[in-house]
Amino acid sequence: MIRPDSPESPPEPEADRASEVTALLKRWRGGDGDAFDRLMPIVYNELQHVARNHMRAEDGSTLQATALVHEAYLRLLKMDVEWQGRVHLFAVAAGAMRRILVDRARRRRAEKRGGEARPVELGEVADFVADGGLGADELVALDEVLHDLAELDERKAKVLELRLFGGLTIQETAEAVDISTATVERELRMARAWVARRLRGDGD
Amino acid sequence: MSKDAEKARFARIDALFQGAIEREAGERSAWLETQEDDPTVLAEVRELLDEDGAHSEPLEAIVDGGLRDAARAEGRSMDDAETATLAFPEAQDAPTEKTPEAIGPYRILGRLGRGGLATVYLAERTSEFSMPVALKRIRRGMDTEDIVERLRLERDILARLVHPNIARLHDGGSDAEGRPYLVMEVIEGERIDRYCRSQELSVRRRLELFRQACEAVEFAHQNLILHRDLKPSNILVTEDGTLKLLDFGIAKVLAGGVEAQQTATENRLLTPDYASPEQMRGERLTTASDIYSLGVVLFQLLTGRIPHTFTPAQLWGGQRPDAPLASRTAEKERTDQNRQTPPADRWGQSVAVEIDAILAKALENEPGHRYGSAREFDDDIARLLEDRPVLARRPTLRYRLTKLARRHRALVSLAALAVLSLLVGIVGTSWQARVAERERLRAEQGQAQAEAVADFLVELFDVSDPYGEARLATGLGGSLDGPRGERVTARELLDGAALRISAELADDPARNRQLRRAMARAYFNLSFFDQARALLNAALDDASDGDALGRALVLRDLGRVDRAQALFDDASTRLLEAESLLRDLGADLEVAVTLEYLGELEFWRENGEASEAYYREAESLHRALAGEDSLEVARTRVGLARAFHKQDRRDEIIDLLGRVLEVQRQHLGDDHPRVLETQHDLAVELIRKDNDSAAEIFSDLMERQRRLLGPDHAELIITLYNLATVRDEQDRWQEAIPLLEEAWRIAGVRGAQETPVASDVLLLFGRVEHRGQRPLEAAEKYRDALALRRSLYGDVHRETATALMRLGRLWAELGDERARALLEEVRDVSMALDLGEENFALLGLGELDIKLGNLAAAVTVLRRGLDAVGPEAGWMTGLFEMRVAQALVGEKGEAGSAAERAEARALLDSALGHLPAEYAWARDARALRVQLDAP
Fold it and tell me: pLDDT digits over A4-49, tens only?
C-alpha cells in the first residue's frame, strides 16, 4: 500500500492510487511533509498524463491549467472523499502545480542562460506558448511576485494561487480559505492587479 | 522601508482600491481626488485600477505556458525533482545563493537545506579537527531586525536547552556581512515514524522510545519553553536509538513578550493535524498544547494514523469530536496491512484499553483536562510499561482537581485581600503587620486549599488501590466525609495522605519528593510548620538518586519554613545554598524565585536594603526570562514595594504598584482577584497622601466586589472599612457612618463580628460617633472594641492598648472616673512594650482630673507630661501647655492664684505658638487666654 518514493515505479491500478492519494492527503493535512512530497509526483504524473492526451487530441492549441487540474482530480480521487477533503486536495494540487512548474522553469532557465534572469514583458506572452524558455522566465517571475505578495498579504497570495495554479472556482476558493465568495472576488481583483502591475515592471 | 511599514502601505492601497472599485468606473478618479494620502500611494492605486480594467488574463497565460512546457517535457522522469529528504527539517527548495566556502571560523562542506528565512549548511571548524556541524545562517536580504531578533531568540532558547534528547547548540555568531548564524549539532537519524516502521518496533518499544520525547519536552517546559511544532519530522532517532528533538524555530518562551506579535508568521508554519484545537484557533498556548501534539505523535506511532482533523466549524463551534480510540484505529489499520502500525503482540493487545485512556487524556479538547505536564504523560506511560494502573483511567481526576482549585481560588485570594492593611488609620500602616496578617488569615482559609491537595492525593492513591481499601483504612472519603459521615479536617486528610506517600512511593524517590513538597506546601499554608518540616526533611534524606533539582527545591522550601518559624539564620543558610545549587543547574527561573524568597526573608529581618537588592536581582532575572511586562516581574515588584516600605519610600511604592497594576490588568483583566489586591495595596499607600485618589480607588473596588462577589462578601468589609477611613481623613466622616454600618452588617452575616477586622470597624465607628458629638454611642463602640481586642490579642498588646487609650481618653473627656484605671493600664502597657504612648496616657489622666475638679493632681500629672515631651514636640507641647494652664486656673479660668494665672497666660501664649490655628485645641486655648485677660 505504501508507494515507493520513486515515481518511476510501475503505474498502479486506478482505484488503489485514488485511495492512496486520499490517505496521503490526510497525512499531509496532518502536517506530514513527507506525504506532500509523495503526493506531488503522483499529482504531477497525473497532470502530465492528462496534458499529453490533450496535446494529442487538440494538437496543443488550447491548454488550460484549470481544465487539466480538474480532470486530474477526478482521476485521482475516489468520489467518496468528503467535500472538505476535496477542497483541500485542490489546495494541495495548486501548491504542487506551482512548485512543479516553477521548479521546472528554474531548471530550464538555468540550462539556457546560466541562471541569468531578465525582465520580461507581457507582450511576449503569446510567445511563451511557443517557447518554453521564455515561459520559464515569466513563471519564475510570477512565482517571485506571488512570494512578495504573500509577504504583504498572505491571503491574497493564497487566493490567487488557488485560482491560477489550482483552477478553483470562486466557491471552492471561498471554502478552501474559509471566507465569503464576495471577499474572494475582492481579494482576487486586487491581487491580480497588483501582480500584473509588478510583472509589467512598474513596481519596484 | 521596514516590513511593517510596507505592509501598512499595502493595506492602505488595498483599502483605497476596494473603495474605488465599489464605485462606477467613471466616478473612481474623482473619488480618489477626495482621498487624502501620500501621492505615491494614490498613483499606485490608479495604476492598479488601470490594470484591473484591462480584463486580460496574462497570469493564466503564464501558468498555461509553463504547463505546456511541462507537458512537452513528458517522458522525462522526475528524477531531478529534488524531493530528497534532508536531515534538516527546514530543508527544501532550490538554491539562489551560492554556497560560500566559509562562514566565520567554519568551513562549509555543503548545503543541507534552505528555509524561508535561513539556509542551513554542513560545516566544520577550520581551526581544528572536529565533528561536522549544521550551520544556519539568515538568508541575504532576510536580515531584517525582526528576523535577526528571532534568530537571536532561537539561539537563547537553544542555549538553555542542554539535554541529551534535544539537538544541541554549539555556537553562534555573525559572518563578515554581519548576518547572524547558529551552529548546531548535526543529527544523523531517521524520523521517528519511519524509524518505528523500518525497525518494526513493537508497541512496547515504541512507547519506550516515545518516553524520550516526553523527557525532552518536559525539560523544555521546565525551562519555560514551548516547542509548538512537535511532529514526527521534528523528532529524529539516531542509530543508537537516541531520540533527538529538533527545530525550536517557532518555539516560544512562556509568558515572553518578544514575539507575541509574530502569530501571523507562525500560523503559516503550523502543521494542522499536530496542532491542538486552541492552537488552531490562534489562542494563547500553554504547555498543554505541546502535550496535545505529543499525543498526536504517539497516536500516529501506535496506529499509523492521525487521530482527526477539526473542521473550522468543529473548531469554533461547541461540538468537538473526541479523538477516536487508538485501539480500534490500530486494529483497522492492521487489517489494512499498514506497515506503520506496530505488529500485533500479546502485551500490546492486553494494554489496549490503557493506551486508549492515555491517548484520550493527552488529546482532550480542553487543555485543562489533559496531562498536567509532559512528566505526567511520561509517568503514565512508565506505569503502563510496568503494568501498574494508569492515572488516565480516571478521566475525572484532573477535571475534579481543576474544579476544586478554581472553587477554592476565590477563597484563597479572599484571604490574601482580607489581610491587607487592617491597621490603617490606627497606628499607621505597618506593611509587615499586614503581611503577617495575610499569612495568618491565609492559614485559616488555607483549609480549602489543603483540602484540594488532600483530595487530589486521596484520588491519586485511590487509583492505585482499585478496591478502595486505602480509603477505608485511612478513613478518607473522596467527599471529605469520613466513613461515619463526620467531617474530616484538611489536617487529617493530609496526615492520611502523608502516611500513604511513604508506603506507596518508596521505590520512586523523585515522584516521592515531588509529592512530599506538594504536601509540605499544603501544611505550610495551614501553618503546620512542623509537619511541613518533617516532610521536607524526609524528602531531603533520600537524595541519593541524583535529582539535583528536586533536592535544591526541597532545600529552598525548608528555608521558607525556617523563615516562617523565625529561624532567620537557618533560613538564610538554606536559601543561599539552594540558590547556588540552582545556579549551577542553570535553572534560572528557580533561581529567580529563590531570590524572591531571600528578599522576603530580609524583609522579615527588617533589612530593607538587602531585601531590595534581592528583589532587584530577581526582577532582572525574571525580566530576562519572561519580559518586562510579565506577571513574574510584577510579583517581584510587589516585593520591592514592601522593601521600600521598610525604607519609607512611599512615592516609589506608589509608582511601583501603579506599574504592577498595569501589567496585571493587561494579563489578567480588570476583575482578577490579584488585580483587585494590588489596587487595594496601592489605595492603602495613598491614604493620607492623596485621599481623593484613594477614595476613588476604594469606591471602584467596592462596586466591583459587589458586582463580582455579591453584596454580602467578606472582602467588602475591608474595602468599606478603608473607604470609611479615607472619608474620616477627608473630614467627611458623616459619609463614613453608612459605610461602617454596612461593614458591620456584613460581618454579622459572615459570622465575622469577633475578628480583628471587626474590632477595627468598631474603633473607627467610635471615632466617627465621637466626631459627630455622640460621645455615649462612641464610648459604647470603644468598649466593645476593647473587649474584643482583649479576647483576640490579650491584655498586654499594642492593639489592646490602642483601644484602651481611645476609651480612656473619651471617658476622661466625659469626666467618667472609669477612665483612670484604663489610662493607668495603658501607661503600664506602653512602658512594658516600649510603645512610647505613656505621655498620651498622662495627658488623659490630667484631663480627667481637670474634668473632676482635681486641679492640683492634674497640675502634677500634666507637668510631668510636659517635661517628658519637652518644648520641641510641636502641637504635643502646645497641647500639654494648654492643659497645664487649664489645670492651673480651671477650664473656664475661674480658679488659681495670681501667680498661677500669670503662668497660665505665659503657657497659653506659648501653646498658641505650637498649636495650628485650625485645631479645636487652639480655639480652646485662645478662649481661655481671652478669659484670663478679662477683668
Answer: 333 333 333 444 555 666 677 667 666 666 766 666 666 666 665 5
DSSP code of residue B174: E
Which residue from A1, A52, A196 is facing B59, i.e. has the nearest CB? Answer: A196
The DSSP output letter for B202 is -
CA distance B529 to B527: 5
Instruction: Determine the straight-line distance between the first and last CA of chain B, rounded to whole angstroms.
Output: 93
Length of chain B as a residue count? 935
Q: Which of B784, B684, B751 shows the shortest CA–CA distance to B426?
A: B684
Q: Kindly state the average pLDDT of the residues A175-200.
A: 86
Residue B599 to residue B643: CA distance in whole angstroms: 8
Helix (H/G/I), strand (E/B), else coil: B725: helix
A·B CB contacts under 8 A: 197
| Preferred mutation among B40, B64, B198 to probe A, highest tally of A CBs within 10 A | B64
CA angle B743, B690, B872 (to 5 degrees): 105
- For CA atoms B295, B296, B299, B301, the dihedral sign is negative
Closest chain A C-alpha to B339 CA, distance in angstroms: 8
Which residue is listed with cell 555573525?
Answer: B174
> From CA B302, how far away is CA A154, in angstroms rounded?
36
Hey, are the CB atoms on B64 and A63 less than 8 Å from each other?
yes
- In this model, does residue B25 exceed pLDDT 50? yes
Could you tell me which residues are beta bridge partners of residue B253? B225
B71 and A51 within 8 Å at the Cβ level: the answer is: yes
Nearest CA in chain A to B55: A193
The span from the CA of B17 to the CA of B14, in Å, is 5
Look at B887 and B271; give whichever has higher pLDDT: B887
The rounded percent of chain B whose pLDDT value lies above 90 is 22
The sign of the torsion formed by the CA atoms of B230, B233, B234, B236 equals positive
Helix B39-53 with A181-200: angle, nearest 10 deg: 100
CA distance B68 to chain A (A): 7
Spell out which residues of chain B touch residue A132, defining contact as CB-CB under 8 Å. 65, 68-69, 72-73
Do B338 and A1 make contact, defined as CB atoms within 8 angstroms? yes
Amino acid at A21: V
- Rounded to an integer, the average pLDDT of B857-863 is 93
Q: How far is CA B85 from the centre of its chain?
A: 44
- Cα separation, B211 vs B68, in Å, equals 51
Spatial distance between the Cα atoms of B922 and B933, rounded to a whole number of angstroms: 17
- Spatial CB neighbours of B470, under 8 Å, sequence gap ≥ 6: B461, B462, B476, B500
H-helix or E-strand spanning residue B8: helix B3-21
pLDDT in tens, B814-852: 889 999 999 999 888 888 877 778 888 899 999 999 989
Among chain A residues, the shortest Cα distance to B304 is held by A27
- Cβ–Cβ below 8 Å for B81 and A153: no
The ipTM, to two decimals, is 0.70
At position B789, the amino acid (one-letter code) is R
Integer Cα distance of B92 and B94 in angstroms: 7
Place of cell 475578628: B755
CA B607/CA B600 separation, integer angstroms: 10
CA-CA distance, A53 to B71, in Å (whole number)? 10
The distance between the two most distant Cα atoms of chain B, rounded to a whole number of Å, is 134
CA closest to A155 among chain B residues: B268
A60 — alpha (psi -120 to 50), left (phi > 0) or beta? left
Vertex B169: Cα angle to B163 and B175 (nearest 5): 175
Cβ atoms < 10 Å from Cβ of A182:
10
Nearest Cα of chain B lies from the Cα of A191 at a distance, in angstroms, of 9
User: What is the radius of gyration, based on Cα positions, of chain A?
Assistant: 17
Question: Whole-structure pTM over 0.90, yes or no?
Answer: no
Cα torsion A20, A23, A29, A35: sign? negative
